[in-house]
Amino acid sequence: MPEVSKMKKPDVKVVLLGDMNVGKTSLLHRYTERKFKDTISTVGGAFFLKQWGPYNISIWDTAGREQFHGLGSMYCRGAAAVILTYDVTNWQSLAELEERFLSLTDTANHDCIYAVVGNKADLTDPKAHLSQDLDGVSQDQTECEEDRTEPQVLSACPTPPASPASLSGMILHKQVTHEDALALYGRILRYKGLEEKSSLPAEKMCFETSAKTGYNVDTLFETLFDLVLPSILRKRNENQESPTVDLEECRVASGKRTKSTCC
Amino acid sequence: MSVKAFELVPAVERDLLMGDKARINIECIECCGKRLYVGTNDCFIHHFLLDEVTSSKGKLSYSAQKKLQKYLGLKKPVAELRAASALERLIVLCDGILFLVDMETLETVPSAAGGGAKIRGVTAFCINENPVNVDPFCVEMGILSSKRRTVQIYMVYEDRVQLVKEVTTPEQPCALSVDGYFLCLALATQYMILNYSTGAFQDLFPYNSEERRPIVKRISREEFLLAAPGGLGMFANAEGVSQRAPVNWSESVIGAAVCFPYVVALDESFITIHSMLDQQLKQTLSFRDGHILQDFEGKVILASTKAVYVLVPLPLERQIQDLLASHRVEEALTLTEGAQKNIPKDKFQILHKRILQQAGFIHFGQLQFLEAKELFRKGQLDVRELISLYPLLLPASSSFTRCHPPLHEFADLNHLAQGDQEKVLRCKKFLISYLGEVRSTEVANGCKEDVDTALLKLYAEQDHDSLLDLLASDNFCQLADSVPWLEKYHKYFALGLLYHCNGQDSAALQLWIQVVDGDLQDSTRSDLYEYIVDFLCSCSNVDLVWKYANWALQKDPNIGIHIFTKRPISKYQPHLKADDVITYLGKHGNALLLYLEHLVLERRLQKEKFHTHLAVLYLERVLLLLTESPTDEEKLTKAREKLQAMLRESNLYRVQFLLGKMENCEQLLLERATVLGKLEEHDKALHILVHELKDFASAEAFCIWASSCRESSYRQQLFHLLLGVYLDGNLPGNSQTAGGGGNGDLKMAAVDLLNRHGEVFDAARVLRMLPGDWSLQLLRPFLGRAVRASMHACRTSQIALGLAHSENLQLLHDRLKERKKPIFVSEKKGCHLCHNTFSEPDVVSLPGGIPVHTHCVAQRVKDSPTKRQLTNSSNHT
After folding, report:
1. Are residues B744 and B869 both part of a single domain?
2. Which of A29, A72, B296, B306 has CA 20 to 30 A from B254's CA?
């Protein structure tokens, strides 16, 4: 990620949260590098700076491991969007979101938006094999079969990642339905003390994705980016109203005044 | 291979510090400029002068010279030392007591109030490097006290310390760092940020300080580096936000520092170096008994229990070169770009460009052309660096030499490909696309010749379609260098184009002609002959046209003549004189004919000479065909049609001359009649047509043609003439000579003529001419039409007369209305002459519109001697 080095000040922060092995890093990889590749268990956290039109959006990939749990609320501080990620083949991963990760978002912005994302949809849903971002998908279809097995090799991972069934391309049992995710979204709103009517609708904010095929990945990120734009603009406005005196601004203002008096 | 970013250089050896005393250990260090202070566990402070020595090979080493050592008299280890250089004071923490000593003498400074400036019960302290206070002779210091859950802020002066603030903390703090108002604290179970001015605090993350020693390190303005669970080095700013991703240390890190762009950390046996730019581990140095790692004014100093070392960063450029040498392009670029802030702008740009170029060549060597191209573009690579990799592509005349030190490790393409022809081919294809893209951009400025010549060579070698496009557009290909190359690949057409580009049209033509004639083989264009004709057609060098037109005309006069006929007429093209062309074409009969046709029929030049010449050529052709036996009727008909059309349409040819030419030929009667018609010898012409050819239709057509642009009376005259000819032959006197059938034919012809073209004739005249014995029935159509026509004419003229009359009246009325006002006559008005009233509407108006009785006027006229006056000026209403 050489782009990170460009030391641009990010305008807004998006954070990926979720249990280990649900595919947070893979989602980010798929979105930023357009491929599905080996990832190792994330240590601590990593982030990527995305240029979205004139804005810089930093996307934080957090570590799902219990060990780094304490850092979560720091990553979430000031976040404009949080992506709560679970694994559609693993009921526990959804439960963890509510039990462990939801409280980390207390430090996020008060108007933070939440997305509930079920990853690994390709394992349960044949339609998720058809990627929506067509570029560069077909050629790594072949290599990702092996990729998927890769996390198993890591001794550091206590939960069985993915499943051996994916090797044979079998359709796995879907443990988390879309309705479960919608219900969780409702509970998140309640936890935040938000009115369901005035918040973004659950249908819009619950996604099922596949980092492996790219299914829904662009849609997820781009939907969120569009939704955080107001947040960016507000932040920029706040910065403009900072106590620092902007000479340019003053000049413009005074220019206007002289104009109006002479009329 | 990792990066070699740092080198560990010994600064103070064990001998110099403690000699052979085994139990003495280093406890703390401080460095301030050249001055190095070392605190030991036997309560001594050692003062060294540290000098940097650079060997002739550029290798850095340190020589330490012991200045002083001082026993503090507390029998406890010296826990911490901090210099306040502006005050010339060293702040010492020993046995929980914090006090000041003189930096030079190491003598305890007596307090201004007496007794010495001391703070007791101190567990840790830190200096604020970004103090809010602006007094330069005062140092701000944060202190942790062993008894209370508080942080105290002190001001340190030359001879006293002053408590300025005390804030309580939720738990007992055990490590701290301060920046501005912000204290970063390690508490027993977590880290937090505390604003000592407002008292506001911000939790960072949990950490068990009893399990692992916490690290709180200020690294820049309002940013701290903290040891986090799982052996992470976390970054946190004053707002409690992490702006950089964490680095992954080992669990047992003792000390850490930032030496941009690296995070250096020390654990029990290693120094680890991570990049802050990509969080990757870059270098690991083995370091036994590591004890202290601290940075002083950008200098990273380490200490084991017995000796002191300096961690010297290698020059950035060398690090980058090391990375590039191991093909770690991304990292090299990240490092370069990350260092932008630390290097002067112009120097950075040069460095950055070079790194980009080198990186580009690394990708190129791995045949990753997309990446390579992007890097070349960003690095503004002198494109000749790339071309020079390909043997023989740069022109011999090119002044280019590769940059030194070299941007890559390849001698040439063969070296790079190791004999793999497929690789060579891919590289060539890449260069083709790359040069094609850059040749018209500023990248090629200053070396356009080299670029275009190289491109031409590649195109020729690879049999690329764009070769011709290159040569057809503006290009800078070097002639001398390209000729052998194009010849080698039989690209003669292209070579011709190149000659043309270089103004050597003659050479180009010679080459092409050789190809057309089959002396050279080049199948680029199957229509090369037509191309040459086109080329000559627009060629501005007249001499060349004269020289090569001959060849073209011999090959195919019908197309060859385009050289002359299709020549664009513009002021930029030298004009070819028609006379010269005609002279030139003398020996190419057919071509000459085509040329004259072009002049006369297409360009419609009104010059007698051309018209006569063309007519004569047509005539000669007809005559030639006539002499052939058997005659080709079809050809003859065509030739005659052309001749006839020419004779009819043109008014410029010399009639007598042509007439003379065809005098002797009995087969060309029709043509002769036409020519006679031109001479207005209509009777002769009609005589031929009627009596010799007996072609009445042609005779009629002749009349119409000959009078086509004349007034109708002329036509009438001609028709009468024709009628006369018909009737003359019909006279009884002539009937004997002309033979039986002929008379009947002529009669019928005359009748037909009258019936068909009755409207042209003057019927009365015709009737006088006709023999009396012709039946009325025979001439019925003519007569009927004649009567109707005359009737029609009569009535039409009557209508015209009536209309003209009424128009005249209308005009009179209008005129009157314009000129006169109405004259009112009533029974109450009196006549000016007799003063009686009017009883009738008839009045006479005197000048000025005065009505009077008619009889009064008549009376007056009778009486007046001057009656003219009155008659002239009166008007009847």
Report:
1. no
2. A72
Chain A from 95 to 114: CB within 8 A of any B CB: 107
B220 to chain A, any CB pair closer than 8 A? The answer is no
Whether the Cβ atoms of residue B613 and residue B596 lie closer than 8 Å to each other: yes
How does pLDDT run across B211-227, given as a tens digit for each residue? 888 999 999 888 999 99
Is the Cβ of B207 closer than 8 Å to some Cβ of chain A?
yes
B811 and B830 part of one domain: no
The distance from CA B675 to its chain's CA centroid, rounded to whole angstroms, is 64
Q: Are B793 and B829 in a shared domain?
A: no
In a domain, B829, yes or no: yes
> What is the per-residue pLDDT across B774-800, written as a single tens digit (0 to 9) for each?
778 888 888 888 888 889 989 999 999
B281 touches chain A (CB under 8 A): no
Among B798, B819, B840, give the residue marking a domain's end: B819
pLDDT at residue A166 greater than cutoff 50: no
pLDDT digits (tens, 9 = 90+) for B598-622: 888 887 878 888 888 888 888 888 8
Q: Is residue B583 part of a domain?
A: no
Give ∠ CA A179-A185-A187 in degrees, rounded to 5.
Answer: 105
Whether residue A78 lies within 8 A of chain B, CB to CB, comes out as yes
B205 at interface of A, judged by CB pairs closer than 8 A: yes
Q: Are residues B117 and B157 in the same domain?
A: yes
Residues B711-738 have a mean pLDDT of 69
Query: Nearest-CA residue of chain A relative to B339?
Result: A5
Q: Is the peptide bond before B261 cis (omega within 30 degrees of 0)?
A: yes
Residues 332 to 351 of B: which have CB under 8 A from any A CB? 333-334, 337-338, 341
Which pLDDT belongs to residue A255? 42
Continuous segment of H or E residues that includes residue B155: strand B150-156
CB B874 within 8 A of CB B854: no
Q: What total number of domains does chain A contain?
A: 1
**Is residue B805 one of the residues assigned to a domain?**
yes
Give the number of other CB atoms < 10 A from CB of residue B277: 25
Q: Which of A140-144, A168-172, B146-150, B574-578 has the lowest mean pLDDT?
A: A140-144
Tell me which of B205, B253, B330 to substitute to probe the interface with A (most A C-beta atoms closer than 10 Å): B205
∠ CA B751-B757-B759, rounded to 5°: 120
Find the CATH number of the domain harbouring B204: 2.130.10.10
∠ CA B639-B643-B646, nearest 5°, is 140
* DSSP classification of residue A201: P
* Chosen domain end from B314, B338, B368: B314
Per-residue CA distances from B767 to B180, B729, B770, B786 (Å): 135, 17, 5, 11
Tell me, what's the ipTM? Answer: 0.75
- Domain housing B767: 680-819
Neighbours of B616 (CB within 10 A): 18
Q: Which pLDDT does position A168 carry in this prediction?
A: 46
Residue entry with tokens 């990792």? B2
Q: Span B282-286, mean pLDDT?
A: 90
Which of A62, A74, A72, A65 lies closest to A27, judged by CA? A62
Residue A155's CB is within 10 A of a number of other CB atoms, namely 6
Residues B854 and B815 in one domain: no
Asked, for residue B481, whether it belongs to a domain, the answer is: no
Of the listed ranges A155-164, B73-82, B463-472, the least confidently predicted one is: A155-164
B277 to chain A: which residues are within 8 Å by CB? 4-5
Query: Domain residues for A150?
Result: 2-262
CATH number for position A179:
3.40.50.300
Interface check for A192 against chain B (CB to CB < 8 A): the answer is no
Rounded Cα distance, A171 and A168, in Å: 9
Give per-residue pLDDT as tens, B795-828.
Answer: 999 999 999 999 999 998 888 877 777 777 777 7
Task: Give the model's pLDDT for residue B698.
Answer: 81
